[in-house]
Design a protein that fits this description.
Rossmann fold, Arc Repressor Mutant, subunit A, 5 domains, seven-stranded parallel sheet, about 45% helix
Length: about 600
């Protein structure tokens, strides 16, 4: 805070829950003028603006989905009302001419950049719009920038400062060590059985992370079968449903939330006692952030990762798919230009509807390969994908066979349409399935709007649940079309990106398969802290302590524990520790508990 108040460009590395927000809120309140906060997280923007307003502090946020009238009102307030202190915007907003014209007139006193690792192309979550921040700085050459992140390797730390044009290097880093958070990694074939035992032993609030949207619902239903209060959450649900599920978990009426990585960003619940990953995360940065949502109240919490050998294979396969060859990327660019009938030397600023299914068929590609190739084109500045490209509508049938028969009798015009849906997508009765309205329209020989209206009608009749994407995905061509061989792809940059990603993958695999180094030490070393102490509690530390214990001594402790097994754990430790080391008694007792 003092560094910012002195007018210095500042980078703050603070762990999840480490107080990043007050680092810009306090200096901004101490100064005259307005603080511009750049954040990619709509949930966080809304939450912080609401909390500031509750304290009588004038703050606003501009995000997608707002009307032009509403945006104009907010911009006017920030220009003319000198009491306004905070304006939150997404990085994409910085590029628009209308916003820039208004921004120049605002009394900006500080620029705060949240999730600053997104500005680095070597970071795990690089977002090209973040590169616009340096252009905004030109309007306010004497105004300091405060960059904030919870996850950055030493290489990314340097790149952030360079990309944001820091006047001089200036980094504040709090240790990433979480004394109250214990890490466990287990190779487990029966993940669901282990998850149940974990929840039984740790009855507090928890999060279960999985990759697949469908599995979020399956696992939540599985837990409810065992009388555990659980719900599921993923980005395919509509905003009202997501808010309702989130509120239930935040209030404590739902004990367990099963989610994809869409859950948690900008959500601050202090009393999360455990976080379980049922799939291996893509990066240690993502894992550290997600696991770090446990124990923000500084009370003991656990972070558990359960994996099997198939998970390791899947992680390696996903890595290969995420780096399509340059020849494939160029071929996709050419095919897309032909598909959209864009002639050479034209196309700049054209906004066109994006149909991934149609393009995948044309190019015989998997959707993940297409999206990854387009992400590379996006990073070169050729085009830009709307946020909705990666989102799809979802469908789930809630009616039974009898209800469907009644529908057919009353509305025989619906029978063919319903049967077409059931033929086109498997699992509609048991899960939320991603659908593409354009593909259904082609098969049914209907207009897309007719398909949407029919799905909405069936949803109102409680035949199915239709969660429509918030907007039709589109693609924006930022430059005129050029021959694909002229696309700017430096082999060394492509190779460096792949090498960095390979290194990141290797770090995850090493963390998962490691049996010799303390989990906490491994994580801290990845983020540049190479001289940390053993945590003494993770699975590796416990195993090491157990091996060091003499067999006879261990057997003696076991025999003593058995004598008092009718007592509580606390009483057992108190009695047996009169003859043996308390640490060793606890270790043996933990083993007994883990083995039931």
């Amino acid at each position: 805070m003092r560094s910012v108040l002195e007018g210095n460009d500042t980078l703050a590395l603070l762990p999840t829950g480490g107080g990043k927000s007050i680092c810009f809120q306090v200096p901004a309140l101490a100064k005259e003028g307005l603080c511009l906060v750049i954040s990619p997280l709509i949930a966080l923007m809304k939450d912080q603006v609401e909390n500031l307003k509750k304290r009588g502090i004038k703050a606003e946020a501009i995000y997608s989905g707002m009307s032009n009238h509403e945006i104009d009102r907010i911009l006017g307030n920030c220009i003319y009302d000198t009491d306004f202190k905070f304006l939150y915007v997404s990085p994409e907003r910085l590029k628009t001419d209308a916003f820039r014209v208004n921004l120049r007139q605002m009394p900006i006193t500080l620029i705060a950049v949240d999730e600053a690792h997104c500005v680095s192309q070597w970071g795990y979550d690089f977002r090209p719009p973040y590169l616009e921040i340096v252009e905004i700085r030109k309007f306010f050459p004497k105004i300091p920038v405060l960059a904030l992140t919870a996850t950055a390797t030493p290489e990314v730390v340097n790149d952030i400062q360079e990309k944001l044009n820091f006047h001089k290097k200036n980094v504040f880093q709090k240790s990433f060590r979480r004394e109250n958070l214990t890490y466990f990694v287990m190779n487990e074939e029966n993940k669901m059985g282990r998850l149940l035992r974990l929840i039984e032993k740790n009855p507090g609030t928890g999060i279960v992370y999985v990759r697949n949207r469908r599995r979020t619902q399956e696992i939540a239903e599985y837990l409810r079968h065992f009388k555990i209060s659980a719900d599921f959450y993923h980005a395919g649900l509509d905003s009202v449903t997501r808010d309702k599920k989130q509120s239930g978990w935040m209030s404590g009426s739902t004990q367990v939330i099963v989610s994809t990585n869409a859950f948690g960003m900008g959500i601050d619940k202090p009393d999360v006692r455990w976080v379980v990953h049922l799939d291996i995360p893509d990066t240690l940065e993502a894992y550290f952030q997600e696991a770090g949502r446990g124990g923000r109240d500084l009370k003991p919490s656990i972070a558990v990762m359960l994996y099997d050998n198939n998970d390791v294979k899947e992680l390696k396969t996903n890595f290969q798919l995420s780096f399509p060859p340059i020849t494939v990327i160029k071929n996709i660019y050419r095919t897309m230009c032909e598909h959209y009938q864009i002639p050479m030397g034209e196309g700049e600023s054209r906004i066109l509807p994006f149909d991934s299914d149609e393009l995948c068929k044309k190019l015989t590609l998997k959707p993940v390969e297409l999206i990854n190739a387009l992400s590379f084109l996006e990073k070169t500045g050729v085009l830009m994908l709307s946020e909705d490209v990666k989102k799809q509508s979802t469908l789930h049938f809630i009616a039974n066979e009898e209800t469907l028969q009644q529908l057919y009798q009353k509305n025989n015009d619906k029978e063919d349409f319903v049967k077409l849906l059931l033929r086109s997508y498997g699992g509609l009765f048991s899960n939320y399935i991603k659908i593409t309205e354009e593909e259904i329209a082609r098969r049914a020989e209907m207009q897309v709007v007719e398909v949407e209206n029919l799905l909405l009608e069936l949803s109102k009749k409680d035949i199915l649940h239709y969660s429509k994407r918030s907007a039709k995905p589109h693609i924006i061509f930022l430059q005129n079309r050029v021959p694909e061989d002229f696309l700017y792809f430096k082999d060394e940059i492509y190779k460096k990106r792949k090498d960095v990603a390979q290194k990141r993958l290797n770090s995850v695999l090493h963390f998962v398969e490691n049996t010799k180094t303390c989990r906490s030490q491994l994580l801290l070393a990845y983020f540049g802290e190479t001289k940390s102490e053993l945590c003494g509690n993770c699975d590796v530390c416990r195993q090491s302590a157990s091996l060091k214990m003499k067999r006879k001594e261990k057997e003696a402790i076991q025999n003593e524990i058995i004598k008092y097994k009718h007592l509580s754990n606390k009483e057992i430790i108190q009695i047996v520790s009169e003859c043996f080391s308390e640490k060793k008694v606890i270790e043996v007792l933990r083993e007994y508990i883990d083995e039931n």
